[in-house]
């Protein structure tokens, strides 16, 4: 289960209070040992206290579409939270993952790709990315190294000024370029980190730099939490990911998925989901000849969801038409997308 941020925050605060009392207890322990080994106790005290001081903060992963933001989030948290696809613009909203290790907790937002919006859904996607930028303590600007030197974040995001968070540039997909190309890119962008989110190369060094820049703070979530969105959200995303994998041209970009029913008290877990498209022709493509396409999407998505919930799932999948939903603010709000003010 992925508990909500709101419900876990009080317990995280209580846990940090215990940590503070542990600092006092450590000092008492050293006082008790002072009569026998005072020099050793004093020399060990800074090391002991450093283990009790924690860091925590928000990290926004931003960049152009298909730069590898979702792959990086999944790599860091150690499991699949954000859907991935060779098709651009697969991430439509902020996906939050939590990475806790070695006294540091990172609340990491995978964001929609930075683009010039053409219609309401893209405006919502850009607004989501910019909101994450504004909230972050650390901003990881991830760029595709195979595309050569990237533009600055200000240019890529069309920003009037840089966000308040500390900026780190990560050059992704370095496993697909030569060592000489990698060195040339990193030399041209001092302080940048060459990484491969796919293989993990360079990711540990990137995490160490993020940790160094986060503020001292008690943990904001339980140490074993990995995400903040509910299971039904991830189930919806996995269904949409499967549609992206199996559909071509414009159809996958027109798909929205809504979970109408999610019953965890049943065995198998019962999920009723509806995939919405914008036109009847798209509905026919999604269903396929005699229902072949929708059955295949349902079968593959069900396996993914079973891995997520750790048990058997009955996926009841439907297709409906909601004309031009990507351009209608009311329809978009129904699917949970947040539009900029005034839209």
Describe the structure.
- The protein is built from ten helices and nine strands.
- The N terminus is likely disordered.
- The chain has 343 residues and is of the alpha/beta class.
> Strand arrangement, largest sheet?
2-3-1-4-5-6
CATH architectural group of the largest domain:
3-Layer(aba) Sandwich
Name the CATH superfamily classification of the largest domain: P-loop containing nucleotide triphosphate hydrolases
What shape does the CA trace take?
A: globular
Summarize the structure.
With 343 residues, the protein is of the alpha/beta class. It has helices spanning 5-52, 69-77, 120-135, 153-156, 179-188, 203-213, 231-246, 280-287, 292-309, 329-334, and strands at 55-62, 95-101, 104-110, 138-144, 166-172, 193-194, 256-263, 269-277, 313-321.
């Amino acid at each position: 289960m992925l508990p909500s941020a709101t419900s876990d925050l009080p317990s995280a605060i209580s846990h940090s209070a215990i940590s503070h009392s542990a600092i006092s207890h450590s000092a008492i322990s050293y006082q008790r040992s002072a009569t026998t080994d005072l020099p050793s106790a004093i020399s060990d005290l800074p090391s002991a206290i450093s283990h009790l001081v924690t860091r925590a903060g928000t990290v926004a992963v931003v960049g152009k579409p298909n730069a590898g933001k979702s792959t990086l989030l999944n790599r860091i948290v150690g499991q699949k939270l954000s859907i991935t696809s060779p098709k651009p613009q697969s991430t439509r909203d902020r996906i939050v993952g939590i990475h806790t290790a070695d006294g540091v907790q990172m609340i990491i937002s995978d964001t929609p790709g930075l683009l010039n919006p053409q219609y309401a859904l893209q405006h919502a996607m850009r607004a989501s990315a910019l909101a994450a930028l504004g909230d972050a303590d650390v901003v990881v600007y991830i760029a595709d190294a195979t595309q050569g030197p990237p533009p600055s974040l200000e240019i890529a995001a069309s920003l009037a000024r840089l966000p308040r968070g500390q900026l780190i540039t990560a050059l992704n997909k370095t496993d697909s370029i030569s060592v000489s190309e990698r060195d040339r890119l990193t030399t041209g962008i001092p302080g940048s980190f060459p990484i491969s989110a796919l293989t993990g190369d360079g990711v540990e060094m990137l995490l160490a730099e993020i940790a160094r820049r986060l503020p001292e703070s008690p943990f904001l979530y339980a140490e074993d939490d990995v995400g903040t969105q509910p299971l039904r959200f991830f189930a919806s995303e996995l269904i949409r990911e499967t549609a992206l994998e199996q559909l071509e041209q414009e159809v996958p970009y027109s798909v929205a998925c809504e979970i109408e029913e999610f019953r965890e008290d049943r065995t198998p877990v019962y999920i009723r989901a509806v995939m919405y498209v914008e036109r009847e022709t798209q509905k026919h493509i999604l269903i396929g000849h005699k229902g072949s396409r929708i059955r295949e999407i349902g079968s593959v998505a069900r396996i993914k969801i079973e891995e997520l919930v750790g048990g058997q799932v009955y996926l009841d999948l439907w297709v409906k038409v909601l004309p031009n939903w990507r351009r209608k603010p009311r329809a978009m709000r129904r699917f949970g997308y947040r539009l900029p003010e005034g839209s």
